[in-house]
Amino acid sequence: MKVLILAGGYGTRLYPLIKDTPKALLEVAGRTLIDHIFEKFTGIDGIEEVCVVTNDKFAAMLSQWGAAHQNKPFPLRVINDGTRTPEERLGAIGDLLFVFEKESQASDWVVAGSDNLFNEGIKDFMISARSKAPAVTVGAYDIRDIASASKYGVIETDGTGKIVSLEEKPKAPKSSLISMCLYYFPKASLGHIRRFVDETRSVDTTGGYIQWLYQQTPVYGFKFSGKWYDIGSFESYNEAKEHFLR
Question: Global pTM?
Fold first, then answer.
């Protein structure tokens, strides 16, 4: 099993704060965002490698970060997707394909957004996700605010945890349970990504892919508790800095 941390965006909604710095290296509670997510994998059995996919603009900075994190039980690799500007960006799904299609050997993958800040561990998520393979499992979180849910992918699950509805940024959310940028992709499921891109020509968001995927094959949600922040705006970043450790 391998891990892929997504850090290929340019964080334009956080300009000028991070115009020349990757969002992954912003700090909350004295640690960078990517440190928060990276450390969650250090106690998980079976991880062969952790990869970080970024762009050419920020590759040197994240490689420097990676060089200081090589004392783990698994290797760490930074992958440059070759883009230099927001207009060139591959998108989250584009970066998944960029990495997965370059790998010579198929593996199960855990995919996490570097700006996906939460304080619960992932051990239970991993146990549940592995038990559901070859189905994909998605991290889910109840933000307990129907109005705010309209900014995210809103999901509904049945009694087994299977996703029965997913709407991206709905005007009238059915619930406050939203999908996090955390996924378990068994190797048997990876071919669906290429089919999705070929059919839809969409390479931007992972949420759009999951919205398509659950209608093709079973996809499960795993509900997290604790605190969660999507660091996509000044508002969410400032809120996380103020409340994450409280």
Answer: 0.95
d(CA 226, CA 222): 13
**Fold matches, 1-119+227-246 and 134-226:** yes
Element (H, E) at 136: strand 136-142
Alpha carbon separation from 165 to 139, 157, 175, 222 (Å, rounded)? 15, 7, 10, 14
Dist. CA 141–CA 176, nearest whole Å: 8
pLDDT for 115-126, tens place per residue? 999 999 999 999
DSSP 8-class letter at 56:
T
Class in CATH terms, 134-226: alpha beta
Burial 202-220 (b: 16+ CB within 10 A, else e): ebebbbbbbbbbbeeeebb
Looking at the domain that runs over 1-119+227-246, which CATH code has it been given?
Answer: 3.90.550.10
**Domain extent listing, the chain:** 1-119+227-246, 134-226
